[in-house]
Sequence to fold (274 residues):
Amino acid sequence: MNSTPEIEAMTIGALARAAGVNVETIRFYQRKGLLPEPDRPQGSIRRYGADELGRVRFIKSAQRLGFSLDEVSELLKLEDGSHCAEARAQAQRKLVDVRERLADLQRIEAALSELVQRCNAIRGRMRCPLIAALQAE
Amino acid sequence: MNSTPEIEAMTIGALARAAGVNVETIRFYQRKGLLPEPDRPQGSIRRYGADELGRVRFIKSAQRLGFSLDEVSELLKLEDGSHCAEARAQAQRKLVDVRERLADLQRIEAALSELVQRCNAIRGRMRCPLIAALQAE
DNA sequence: CTTACTTCCGTACTTAAGTACGGAGTCAAG
DNA sequence: CTTGACTCCGTACTTAAGTACGGAAGTAAG
Fold:
């Protein structure tokens, strides 16, 4: 048995399982246009492959980073390679946004790890720099 | 006129304006316990200061990074300095989570900036590494 | 060929995170 | 001391992102 058996012929259920989401979520993404509805090779049941799996995983990851489905769909539009100039401008705007988030997240990282360090050292009460972490700028 | 006039005696409306949110949002956070309801120095109207402003800004920043209000409230609980051991464990779990997000966000950053570069160089169609960026691991 | 499990599709329900609304009380200016 | 803006509070509405449901039709195993 292969490690990715029949990955190019998954049913919607298999896709959902592979991506760790609900079947209804897949269908919801299709309705929203975030995921294409592939054709039905034999009969009337659709089959999904690695591309679709990648997309679903991408969506979930981007969401975890605070992107809304609308934003994800903009990100995905950049991916198709057409209207390059437009995509480039769009990508640059997103990049600014992403870099701000990175900076925020890095400050949280620093604050949390300092909290862990200190808490390790001083047993007792201390005031943590968590809120201050996101004050800068 | 000072740059932060009366920052220790803001009304709810001033606080909301300063934080860039709706008055109702402030009240909503109070109901959720994310924000304390300060006492009313003179009469029956509450006054807010820099601490509350910091909190609201923290909440909004954390949300932008994909933390839910429940998660934010856990983060805020770490801040009070009591039950240190517990907080430390909690902080360490969050830290793992935050570092995963950082890695994802860094991959998106790399993919976007590569997209901008390439789009600059090759005029025409190309396939961007955006989805692939979040496949790793 | 039947039986059990899926898929498909539309519609309805749920949860999180606000937003809006309406009436009563408060406060500062004119 | 009234007028206009604001606060307080409770309740109701909205939006995004799913989740659940129910009936018809497809499909794989026995």
Q: What stands out?
A: Residues 1-5 of chain A have pLDDT under 50 and may be disordered. DSSP finds six helices and no strands in chain A.
